[in-house]
Structure formats: C-alpha cells, structure tokens
Amino acid sequence: MKKLTIAIDGPAGAGKSTVAQIAARCLKYTYIDTGAMYRAVTWLAMTRKISPQNSQALTDEVCKVDLKLELVEDKTMVYVDGIDVTEQIRTPEVSRKVAEIAQIPEIREVLILKQREMARLGGVVMDGRDISSCVLPDADVKIFLTASIEERAKRRWQELISTGVNVSLKNITHDIASRDKKDYEREIAPLKQVPDAMLIDTTGLTIEDTVQRILDACKERSGVV
C-alpha cells in the first residue's frame, strides 16, 4: 500500500509539532519538523555570530554542518554537528530571530532540498509554514492548523515555563503576534492556507481530537488507518 506524504502547515503555537509527531507515530511514519531546522540555523547564526545580512557566509556554514533530526522516546531531538540543541532552539531569543532567517532565499533553497529528499519515498508527516504551498505541493494530505493568538500564546508560555524559562505571557503573546505578521507578509513563501488543505482550528480542541481529524483525513485519502 502506498505510503502517504502528509503536509501540516500553520502559524506559531498552533500545535503542529505535537499533533504531527503523534499522527506519525500512529501511522508508523517518519516525522519531519522543518521549523526545528530553521531554528537550528538561527541558533547556528547566533552562536557563531553570523549576521542574517551576510547570507552567503551563513549559507556556506549551513552547507558544512551536519544538521540531524532524530526521534528519541517520542521526542524530536535536534543536533548540529553532534551537539544537542533541542532545548536551545526553543528559547524566546531564537523565536524572535527565526522569521528573519527563514526569509533568506539561499537558506530556504538548501533546507527545502533536504526536506524534499527526506519525503521522497513517502511515509512522512512534515510540518512547517510552507509545506503545502512550497516544499511538498503534491502532498497526498494537506492540513492547515490554526488557533486564536491567545490560545497559542498560552500554550507556548506553558511549554517554556515547564522547561524553566522565565517569561511573561504578555511578552509571548506579543512575540507570536509579531511572528504571525512576518510569516503572513513575507515576500518569499508566506504562510497561507492552500485551497486543497483541510482547515482545523485547534482552539478548544484536545490533542487527541486534532490527531483523530488528521487520521480521518488520511483514511479518506487511501484507507491507511
């Protein structure tokens, strides 16, 4: 039976990573967190003090490093040259800068090629902001997840607090609203819902309910589930 390619898009804090990981596990598929890849590049730029304006230097650095995603006990671990940066890439500092990095054409070109190669044989659940519109326009199942800004900010705040990061809900709400504006208005591959994507508003939905809707969409597509 053909393995599906599933694309999940949506704004920051909509729950993409969480539900995509669970859906992938249910389907016995590979989960690919493209947002983590851009965050890793952002962390790399900050750590090595490479300005986003120096796109060639940053692109050269990205081409040289070993960027790896690995699922360990239901958690996606992110490694840059063997260094575990899973927690570092989720800090507010990285969150504020990642949209700028994601707009660099050369960086996008490198990462998109990596992402398409990962999905070439199917059997993947890939989430991000331009998966359906740019990375995998021929994906078998396309989902657009969203939620109110208040709901998304609360989720991100709880996530950060649980990892020991002391940040205010007000600041997180401001950061998410700012990120939304940049994502929707950027010139290159802006965040958008493509016409054939299924819209799921996760405000008020449980994780289980959201995952089930995605699995139902897969079942309707090919009877996989």
Automatic annotation (TrEMBL):
Coiled-coil segments? none
Catalysed reaction equations from the record: dCMP + ATP = dCDP + ADP; CMP + ATP = CDP + ADP
Q: Which InterPro entries match?
A: Cytidylate_kin, Cytidylate_kinase_dom, P-loop_NTPase
The entry's cellular-component GO terms read: cytosol
Q: Which family does it belong to?
A: Belongs to the cytidylate kinase family. Type 1 subfamily.
Q: Which organism is it from?
A: bioreactor metagenome
Matches recorded under PANTHER family: CYTIDYLATE KINASE, CYTIDYLATE KINASE/PANTOATE-BETA-ALANINE LIGASE
Q: What is its EC number?
A: 2.7.4.25
State a single Gene Ontology molecular function.
ATP binding
List the protein's name: (d)CMP kinase
Q: What's a GO biological-process term for it? A: nucleobase-containing small molecule interconversion
Alphabetically sorted, this entry's keywords are: ATP-binding, Kinase, Nucleotide-binding, Transferase
Keyword check for Transmembrane: no
Q: May I ask which residue range the UniProt record assigns to the signal sequence?
A: none
Top EC category: transferase
Q: Which residues form the Cytidylate kinase domain?
A: 6-219
Please give the Pfam families that the UniProt record associates with this protein: Cytidylate_kin
Q: Cite the SUPFAM superfamilies for this sequence.
A: P-loop containing nucleoside triphosphate hydrolases
